[in-house]
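Let us work through a complete example step by step.
Step 1: write down the sequence.
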Amino acid sequence: MRKFYKAACLALGMLLFSCSTQDLTEDSQNSTAASNTNSSETSKTTPVKNNISKFWDFNNLDEWEDATQVGEANYFIENGNLRLFTNANTWDRTKIKSIATYSTGTYSWRVFVPEMGVGDCASIGAFLYSDDTHELDFEIGYGKETVRQGLNAASDDLIVYTTSQANPSHSFQSKIKRNQWYTFTITLALNTKKKYVATWKIDNQNLTSKTLTYGTATKFKIFCSVENLSFIGDHIPATQNYALFDWVEFK
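Step 2: predict the structure and record it as tokens.
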């Protein structure tokens, strides 16, 4: 009788252990599933912090749209480059812009800067735009004669304007040679007050930096342009002016 009692107790104990182990396993699986679901939901609602990298090589215009303000949409793909141009005796403003917007990171444009007409009010633009008071630019052109003299520009020099249009306003001028490829770069970083610090570079050489009064609440579209603009020359263009964009990158 005592042996039977022990055997019964042992069998009952094994049964309870088996059930307990199964329950623990099921609880563990359910907990993991719930954890994965919550993690997935969190990832959808948590903002991604600048782990975006984009490269456009201009074999097509995917992810870009027309932004021309005056004249026809004077651009096309040519041998893997984007060619934009403006016509003589016009105030054409030929532009494309990215469909998406971006914030902190490094923006680069690989651009062929041609000869450009002497004295022409024509500008090659590589710039970031949110609105008229939140705009950061490279503008390249012949330059007004007064500016050229102030920079002691040679006959084969063009003038580069690096600007923040407002908040605050900032402008810096330098020289580059005609008929060459350049990489123009604007880097947007954040300071300890979460404000943008903009840095402009050409071929990885620093030109100028400026702390802005705003931060990542302002996002930018990326622009490529050739525009006939009065500030960058002394007369309405007498020639057709153009630029080639090999690629644009954001990282």
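Step 3: interpret the result. The longest strand covers residues 180-190.
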